[in-house]
Design goal:
The complex is a heterodimer.
Chain A: H1 9-23, H2 29-46, H3 52-68, H4 72-76, H5 79-87, H6 89-93, H7 107-118
Chain B: E1 13-17, E2 20-24, H1 30-36, E3 60-63, E4 66-69, E5 80-82, H2 86-102, H3 117-124, E6 141-142, E7 148-151, H4 160-167, E8 174-177, E9 184-187, E10 214-216, H5 229-232
Parallel strand pairs in B: 1-5
Antiparallel strand pairs in B: 1-2, 3-4, 3-5, 6-7, 7-10, 8-9
C-alpha cells in the first residue's frame, strides 16, 4: 500500500484495527477478544492516554493472535500494526503521554500498608520472597 | 458434516505428547487420544461426547513445531506434540484472561463456583488476575423458564449447549449469533426467551454448560462451596472423567 507524507501512519493502523475488529466472526477467543483489545489500546493511544506499556501489550497481542487463532484473519489482524510500529514508531510515540511515562502501580509498595496494619514482615509478606 | 479423515489417520498408531508415547485409534483427534490415555490438555469447548468445535483455543499445542488445536487436529503416527510448555501455558493464561474480561465473571457469588471449568482451569494454570481492562458488557439474564435460568454474563461461547441440543436432544434450542465482540448465545424461540423454547430440565443441553450460564432453579448450593468437584481435585487430575 502507498501512502503519502501527509498521512498519519498511526491513524492508518488504527483504521486497520477497527476494520479487523469489525470483520472478526467472533468464533475463536483470541480473534474475538484480541481484535477488540487492540482497538481499545489504539483508541487509548489516540486520545493521548497511552504509555509505552500499551505498545508492549500490542506486541503481545500480535504474537498471541499469530499462533492461536482459528483462521488467517485473526492471525493477520495485527500485521498492519506490527509493520507500522516497526517502521513508523515516531508516529506512535507522539501519541504517548510521554516517552518515559510508566503507569505507577507498585504492588509491593501497596502491600506495605497491609504489612504495617498486620505487623507482619516475614518472607510471605513480601512479593519478591513469596513462595 | 463431512466425515473427512486423512489417510494416515485411518489406521491406529502412536504419537509423542511431551515426550510420552500416546496410542491413537482411527479418526482420533490428538485431544481424544490424549484424554483416553489419561493425559490432560487444557480445554473448555471440547467434550468427549460431542463433535469438536475448536473455538476456545485453550487446547492449542505445537505439532511438529506448528500451532494447532488438539481437539481438531487428527492424530497421526510420528507426530511430535508439545503441550505442557511454559510458552503454551502462558498463551493459555492469556486466552483465559480474555474469556474472563469479555464477560462478567464474579466467582465468589456464582452458584457454579467449584464446579466451573473456566474457574478450575484458571486455578490450575495459576491465573492471578485479569491483566487486561474488563469490558463489563451489558448482558441480559433470562429467568423466564420455570425450571432453568440463562445468565449470559457467564457465557464463554463454547457452544456445548448448542451441540448438545442438536446432537443429543435433537431440538436446536440454542445457536450462536452476531459477530466480533458482539457474538452471543441465542435461544431459538419465537420470543427469544427460554420459556418459549423446547428446553426441558432433563435435556442434555441443560446439563452441559461448563460455566454458570445455564443453571437449574431451586437447586442453589446443594453441595457447599469447598466440597465441589474442582474444590476436591484440580481439573488437570480429573482427566478420566472427561469434560464436565
Amino acid at each position: 500500500m502507498v501512502f503519502d507524507r501527509s498521512r498519519d501512519m498511526f491513524e492508518v493502523a488504527r483504521n486497520f484495527a477497527q476494520f479487523f475488529a469489525h470483520e472478526s466472526c467472533g468464533f475463536c477467543t483470541p480473534c474475538r477478544v484480541g481484535t477488540e483489545l487492540v482497538v481499545r489500546r489504539m483508541n487509548k493511544l489516540s486520545k493521548g492516554y497511552g504509555s509505552s506499556e500499551d505498545v508492549q501489550v500490542l506486541y503481545e497481542l500480535d504474537k498471541l493472535m499469530h499462533g492461536a487463532t482459528h483462521c488467517g484473519l485473526g492471525a493477520a489482524a495485527c500485521n498492519p500494526l506490527r509493520d507500522t510500529i516497526a517502521k513508523f514508531r515516531p508516529a506512535y510515540e507522539q501519541h504517548l503521554k510521554s516517552l518515559h511515562f510508566a503507569p505507577g502501580f507498585d504492588m509491593d509498595a501497596e502491600l506495605s500498608q497491609a504489612r504495617l496494619a498486620t505487623g507482619r514482615d516475614d518472607s510471605g509478606a513480601h512479593l519478591e520472597t513469596l513462595a | 458434516m463431512t466425515n473427512y479423515h486423512r489417510i494416515d489417520a485411518l489406521s491406529p498408531g502412536t504419537f509423542s505428547l511431551d515426550g510420552e508415547e500416546v496410542e491413537f485409534g482411527p479418526g482420533d483427534s490428538i485431544l481424544q487420544a490424549a484424554t483416553r490415555a489419561g493425559h490432560y490438555i487444557p480445554h473448555l469447548c471440547w467434550h468427549p461426547d460431542f463433535g469438536a468445535q475448536g473455538s476456545c483455543r485453550l487446547c492449542t499445542v505445537r505439532i511438529n513445531g506448528r500451532s494447532g488445536a488438539a481437539c481438531t487436529v487428527h492424530a497421526a503416527s510420528g507426530q511430535e506434540v508439545e503441550s505442557n510448555t511454559d510458552e503454551l501455558n502462558a498463551q493459555r493464561k492469556t486466552l483465559l484472561q480474555m474469556l474472563f474480561i469479555e464477560g462478567n465473571h464474579f466467582c465468589p457469588s456464582c452458584e457454579k463456583s467449584g464446579n466451573c471449568r473456566l474457574q478450575a482451569t484458571a486455578y490450575d494454570l495459576g491465573l492471578e488476575g485479569p491483566h487486561f481492562e474488563e469490558f463489563y458488557p451489558d448482558r441480559p439474564v433470562d429467568a423466564s423458564h420455570p425450571d432453568l435460568m440463562l445468565d449470559l454474563n457467564r457465557c464463554i461461547l463454547c457452544s456445548l449447549c448448542v451441540r448438545a441440543s442438536q446432537e443429543v436432544d435433537h431440538k436446536d434450542v440454542f445457536a450462536i449469533g452476531g459477530h466480533g465482540i458482539k457474538t452471543h448465545l441465542l435461544v431459538n424461540s419465537p420470543s427469544g426467551k427460554l420459556k418459549d423454547s423446547a428446553l426441558l430440565p432433563g435435556d442434555r443441553a441443560a446439563h452441559v454448560c461448563p460455566v454458570g450460564a445455564i443453571l437449574h432453579k431451586r437447586q442453589g448450593f446443594a453441595i457447599p462451596i469447598g466440597q465441589r468437584r474442582f474444590d476436591v481435585k484440580p481439573v488437570s487430575e480429573q482427566v478420566e472423567e472427561g469434560a464436565s
